[in-house]
Write a structure and sequence with these properties.
Oligomer: single chain
Radius of gyration: 28 Å
CATH architecture of one domain: 3-Layer(aba) Sandwich
Largest sheet: 6 strands, mixed
Shape: globular
CATH superfamily of one domain: P-loop containing nucleotide triphosphate hydrolases
Structural class: alpha/beta
Strand order of the largest sheet: 5-6-7-3-8-9
Number of strands: 18
Number of helices: 20
CATH class of one domain: Alpha Beta
């Protein structure tokens, strides 16, 4: 057991932990959460012996083998696979001793060290290192590439591989998914589930945490609070506690109301049963855990677009790429209500498609129409790298809107947790997370009617990701997003499109279906097989006949579903009108008590009818899907 007893930990004059206590048992998988700067990374440094407690005691079993993921890697001529092998210090020690024994002609020593090498499984260690590299997205031809030939993000992946390579009883991972795509994240989840030691993870990917951990340690008010369960369970437990605090109640209710409004808007236009059920479950949970985030320092909204035409962008048989097409014959209509997530393996063209829609890349062929009123808010994957580091947040906003009042700009920046003198501080002093928040603020201030977001959550912590999710739920324009944050996608989009093998087609299913499909493609050949093979020509006539028969069979069912959707639209309109009437303070005066009671009775009746119609709609929609 690892224990902290009455632990006080400081960074300079800042107290991070004060008389904190924690007991960690062997085999536990723990997520460490807390605000930026609360002391999570310092706790890791303490466990690694890099930082001493100022007071109290840290107790750890003698001989505990610790492995951790470094955050930086210097350029090196060593190959990727050799770098990963360096993670196993015991293997390197035995390897060096064996070389020395062979050079000295020491027969007994050679036999001894060969035996030691066999004990640690050293003869297949290179194969294990290659498996780690492959799982984390490296191609076989990159295994012998020097470390200096990789970008910063891929070097972080090498650090992760080296940490996983090291035999350990305690594994500490600080933001392991920051530079991983969804495929590599899913692989890492499975690896960590099989890990036999004690695991502590700092991560801002809630879906990843939910799938890996069974405990949460929360850094709260300079203490360490241990919760049993995954991250979602932690949120629920914390929400129940905070919701009881009366001072927080009004703020909590505003958050809940925002999510309820998004649920109503989603239900009014949902058209697919499987996706609808998945989304409604997510949104219901979002409502329940809203109180867990009521003390978040982040709160912002995307301003309502000044104009919102019915069709914003249309792509007709568009080829997109550079010297050669990366995507061919793309057909996509982006309307005022579009909310799309682009899915697909890395390198398939998701970011390229966003660049084309944003107007940064001209199509090679085909027609691309843009509304004259189109106002794009484009957050590129490397947006933070192009910020003017000498400027301040205030100056960048003033450049966008010279006529804006300073107080309005300060209020707006406050929602992104830039307060006081920070609004005039040079951006070069900001952390990666602060730069990412500022880049989002610049996009939001421009009042776009089409948001194009390419990995917007990189560098954002859990609280900021939650605030972004709420802001996107309330956003009134069109949205196309690329992200490996499954929680964000599940709560903000209506449709999924898969970019794969040069095509961009609608994906019929939810995120769990996509994860299964992605794993199938990887097993079939690292994501190169197509989702649906082309039908053979000899089968096409038969398929047309079957399709015609199916259309005739399901036509009455489709008609019934459309009728139910119309009823839902009507009921939602009635309920919206009633809520507007109920917002009138005069309705609650004594002489209008009868009118109020009648309205409340009608509202309850309308809600009951809405629930009945929605349940029937889901039932019929599921039946329709069974014919697919």
């Amino acid at each position: 057991m690892i224990s902290l007893n009455d632990a006080t930990l400081m960074r300079g004059d800042l107290v991070l932990l004060r008389q904190a206590n924690l007991a960690i048992h062997h085999g536990q998988k723990i997520g460490v959460v807390g605000r930026n700067g609360s002391g999570k990374s310092s706790l890791f440094a303490c466990l690694l012996g890099q930082l001493a407690l100022d007071q109290g005691e840290l107790s750890m079993p003698e001989g505990t083998r610790c492995a951790h993921m470094r955050q930086e890697t210097q350029a090196s001529a060593a190959s990727a696979v050799e770098f990963v092998l360096d993670g196993d210090a015991e293997y390197r020690r035995i390897e060096q001793a064996l070389v020395q024994a062979e050079e000295a002609g020491d027969g007994a020593g050679i036999a001894h060290w060969h035996s030691e090498m066999d004990k640690i499984g050293g003869y297949d260690i290179r194969n294990r290192a290659m498996q780690l590299l492959s799982g984390l997205g490296f191609r076989s031809e990159q295994f012998e590439q020097p470390v200096s030939g990789f970008s910063g993000g891929w070097r972080i992946r090498l650090n992760l591989a080296a940490a996983l390579m090291a035999p350990s009883d305690l594994l500490l991972l600080d933001e392991p998914t920051n530079h991983l795509d969804l495929e590599a994240t899913l692989w890492l989840e499975q690896w960590l589930k099989r890990y036999q030691g004690t695991l502590l993870i700092i991560s801002h990917d809630r879906s990843f945490l939910d799938n890996v951990i069974d405990y949460v340690v929360s850094v709260e008010q300079q203490k360490l609070a241990l919760y049993r369960g995954n991250y979602s369970s932690f949120e629920t437990q914390r929400a129940e506690r905070l919701a009881q605090e009366q001072a927080m109640f009004e703020k909590q209710q505003r958050r809940v109301a925002q999510i309820e409004d998004f649920v109503r808007r989603f239900r009014a236009k949902a058209t697919k049963a499987r996706q609808a059920q998945s989304r409604l479950k997510e949104l219901d949970r979002m409502q329940k855990i809203a109180p867990a985030h009521i003390d978040s320092p982040f709160y912002f909204e995307f301003p309502e677009p000044e104009r919102l035409p019915a069709e914003l962008v249309a792509l007709e048989k568009v080829d997109i790429g550079y010297a050669e097409p990366l995507l061919k014959q793309v057909r996509l209509s982006v309307r005022d209500s579009t909310r799309i997530a682009l899915l697909g393996f890395n390198g398939e063209g998701k970011s390229t498609l966003l660049r084309c829609i944003a107007g940064e890349l001209a199509p090679l062929t085909g027609e691309l129409r843009r509304s004259r009123y189109l106002q794009v808010g484009y957050f590129a994957q490397h947006q933070v790298d192009v910020l003017d580091l000498a400027a301040s947040p205030m100056l960048l906003l003033q450049r966008l809107d010279p006529g804006a009042r300073e107080q309005s700009l300060r209020d707006f920046l406050g929602g992104f947790d830039f307060h006081g003198d920070r609004v005039n501080e040079a951006i070069g002093n900001f952390s990666g997370g602060e730069k990412a928040r500022l880049a989002l603020a610049l996009v939001a201030w421009q009042k776009p009617n089409l948001l194009l977001l390419d990995e917007p959550t990189n560098h954002l912590d859990l609280e900021m990701r939650h605030a972004l999710t709420l802001a996107l739920q309330g956003y009134q324009g069109a949205l196309i997003i690329v992200s490996h944050d499954r929680h964000l996608l599940a709560n903000t989009v209506d449709e999924f499109y898969c970019v794969h093998q040069g095509r961009c087609v609608e994906f019929d299913g939810d995120l769990q279906d996509y994860e299964r499909w992605m794993q199938e493609q990887s097993r079939a050949g690292t994501g190169t097989a197509s989702r649906d093979s082309e039908p053979r020509k000899s089968d096409k006539r038969e398929q047309r006949q079957q399709a015609a028969a199916l259309r005739e069979q399901v036509a009455p069912l489709r008609k019934e579903i459309r009728k139910l959707e119309q009823q839902l639209d009507s009921l939602h309109g009635e309920l919206a009108d009633m809520e507007q009437t109920l917002a009138d303070p005069g309705l609650y005066e004594d002489d209008r008590k009868k009118e109020l009671n009648e309205l409340l009775h009608r509202q309850a009746s309308a809600r009951a009818r809405s629930d009945e119609v929605e349940a029937l709609w889901l039932e019929k929609s599921e039946l329709l899907e069974s014919f697919a």
